[in-house]
Specification:
six-stranded antiparallel sheet, alpha/beta, elongated, 662 residues
């Protein structure tokens, strides 16, 4: 099969009619390269191809759970001039019995008063074919089953997802089941179980048939509800994985752009305000102290001398007062001694002693008095010197220490604030991060609700199946009274057992071939003969096991990120080759997060040999420079996608990226 043309008309970012000629130039130049910036419409090409071929059965990754008509309306061009109708056309050819047959698939839709109306037109060799249009779903499933399309049409995120060892088994299981048609075998087994139940219903009397028919209808309804909930849950989980990766990328850009410091700005500003308040409060405290007794600390020595002088003056006054009393006492004493008959000698000696004592005391009271402090004033000075001024000195010391600390805190906070980027600098990065974070949170809430609905529907289904099985089991012996129906039931069960055995043998037979193709592709991409010598796929759980040249087990976790992505590419390549179908390969964002070495491996060893026709949808940072020059001999056509701000739409033109132009 060859994809010849893809035409978009008012589809998403593409306004008007845009035609992509995808026909490979020759077998030596099988590659068609489409290059564009993010948002210019590369992924839209992959989406348009899926939609044209499969319609409602197209992958629903971009539908976000919306109804098909709502999804189609969202595909209309919404530029500066919104479109009322759109169309996607795919022209392909295939060889049938040695002759080339061409098909044109034209799927269009338009707004109506009641919603959106879709129309499908098919041409075969230039002639309209209503038969093909009516049976297109069955025809395309025979040509390229929708379950196999992801092996040929995929994006870089699929490679990245498969590079996760935990996700490889699930992807392999789905791919191998689809590739070998085992999903049809499983469906046949399910249909046989349904047949058995219906035949058992025929053995019931009318009342029993009615009861079992009601139970069967309830089981069918519960099964449909559970399948819808499962699909919704799985789709949300995929969206969360993608949104989480985008959030991590946005957070890294936000952090490298100074976003963490910017987010701490409020804390820094609050710390700065607190430091300023502490500084101002301390300065106010110092001013308050200065307005009080603090100036007296400057004259503390003078106050000490005042206290000392006041004490001396008080002592002098007390000495003079005591002198007057002593004089009267001494006179009375001399009179008493004289009246007592003391001799004159003793009396003279006593009189001289008392006079000398009074003179000595009078000399102590000879102080120059100029303060004349009252007792209250002297007490006030003493209190200042002994209590208030020492306490004030301690308060001043503590306030000055707080002032130094507050000043240092203010200066430090101002320095940290000066290093914070401005709002304009960080706004775009913050907006991108917040939008990504909000998207993840919204999806997680939706997933939690979907998970709850899934569990509820599972319990409902289990309960209804249990009731149905119980009713059937109670009546099974009586129900097998009629031989012909019994034989149908018996043979149906044997067929289901045979299908199970067939399933096992088909897996055992084909898995060896698939794993050899995968290993061949991996070794061709990696060219490390000493890394992986053997590759095995367990048919039971589809887990992947790698072995080195010595037979030792090699854990996929021990491979580098680039090697794991090359292994994922090898899986897709091997499965596509195992299908035996000559289908083109279309890859969106082909190089993803690979490093330069592993990118060159894909450029040299995969893209030129992936298929007879390879379409690469590359960003302007992927296939460029040396990669483009290496791949150029294999490129037959190259297109560039340009976004026109004036019209709000993308357009296509032929050419190579600027750094790789001829």
């Amino acid at each position: 099969m060859v994809l010849e043309e893809l035409t978009l008309e008012n589809f998403r970012a593409y306004r008007g009619r845009q035609v992509f000629d995808l026909r490979p130039v020759s077998r030596r130049q099988p590659i068609v390269l489409v290059t564009g910036l993010n948002g210019t419409g590369k992924t839209t090409l992959l989406e348009a191809l899926h939609l044209a071929l499969y319609g409602k059965l197209a992958p629903a990754s971009r539908r976000d759970g919306r109804a098909y008509e709502t999804y189609l309306e969202g595909c209309l061009h919404h530029g500066h001039e919104a479109a009322q109708s759109a169309a996607v056309t795919v022209k392909l050819s295939r060889t049938v019995q040695g002759c080339s047959v061409s098909y044109v698939i034209h799927r269009s839709w338009s707004r109506t008063g009641k919603g959106v109306r879709e129309q499908l037109e098919i041409q075969r060799d230039g002639e309209p074919s209503t038969v093909l249009a009516d049976d297109w779903g069955q025809f395309i499933e025979e040509l390229l089953p929708s379950r196999l399309a992801p092996l040929f049409f995929f994006d870089g995120e699929k490679i990245e997802a498969m590079a996760d060892p935990d996700a490889t088994s699930e992807v392999l299981s789905v791919a191998i089941h689809s590739l070998l048609g085992l999903d049809l075998v499983d469906q046949l087994g399910t249909d046989l179980e349904l047949l058995e139940r219906r035949k058992q219903l025929e053995l019931k009397n009318s009342s029993e048939r009615t009861t079992l028919a009601d139970l069967q209808q309830q089981v069918d309804e519960a099964q449909e509800a559970h399948q819808r909930n499962s699909a919704r849950r799985n789709a949300l989980q995929e969206e969360i994985n993608t949104a989480t990766k985008r959030l991590r990328s946005a957070e890294r850009r936000f952090e490298s752009g100074g976003g963490v410091a910017y987010e701490a700005r409020r804390e820094l500003e609050e710390a700065h305000r607190q430091a300023r308040r502490e500084l101002e409060d301390t300065e106010d405290e110092l001013r308050r102290l200065a307005e009080g007794l603090a100036p007296l600390l400057l004259v503390e020595p003078l106050l000490t001398r005042v206290a000392q002088q006041g004490a001396r003056e008080r002592a002098a006054r007390e000495s003079r007062a005591l002198g007057s009393l002593l004089q009267r006492r001494d006179q009375e004493t001399v009179k008493l001694l004289k009246a007592s008959g003391v001799d004159d000698k003793t009396l003279d000696k006593t009189r001289r002693f008392l006079e000398d004592d009074r003179k000595r005391r009078n000399q102590q009271g000879a102080v120059d008095e100029y303060l004349n402090l009252s007792r209250e004033g002297e007490s006030r000075v003493t209190e200042l010197l002994q209590a208030q001024l020492p306490e004030l000195r301690q308060q001043l010391a503590e306030s000055q220490e707080r002032l130094v600390r507050a000043s240092a805190a203010v200066e430090a906070s101002e320095q940290r604030l000066s290093a914070v980027p401005e709002e304009e600098t960080i706004a775009r990065l913050r907006q991108a991060r917040d939008a990504a974070r909000s998207r993840v949170e919204d999806l997680k809430r939706e997933l939690a609700l979907a998970e709850a609905l899934h569990q509820t529907s599972q319990r409902t289904l289990d309960e209804r199946e249990k009731r149905l099985t119980a009713v059937i089991n109670r009546q099974v012996e009586q129900d097998l009274a009629r031989d012909d129906l019994s034989r149908i039931l018996t043979h149906s069960q044997r067929v289901r057992e045979t299908l199970g055995e067939l399933r096992g043998r088909v897996l055992a037979r084909h898995v060896d071939h698939i794993q050899s193709l995968v290993l061949e592709g991996f070794r061709q991409l990696l060219r490390k003969s000493d890394l992986v010598a053997q590759l095995e796929i367990d048919p039971a759980d589809f887990s992947l096991r790698l072995y080195g040249p010595g037979g030792q087990r090699v854990s996929a976790q021990n491979l580098s990120a680039g090697e794991r992505q090359l292994l994922a590419v090898s899986l897709l390549w091997g499965l596509a080759r195992a299908s035996g179908r000559p289908i083109p390969t279309l890859i969106d964002t082909p190089l993803g997060r690979l490093d330069s070495t592993h990118r060159m491996h894909l450029i040299e060893r995969y893209f030129p040999f992936a298929s007879h026709q390879v379409v690469l949808l590359s960003t302007d940072e992927e296939i460029t420079g040396s990669y483009l020059e290496t791949l150029r001999p294999k490129i037959g056509k190259s297109y560039l996608l340009d976004y026109d701000l004036a019209s709000g739409s993308s357009r296509i033109r032929e050419g190579f990226p600027e750094n790789g132009s001829r």
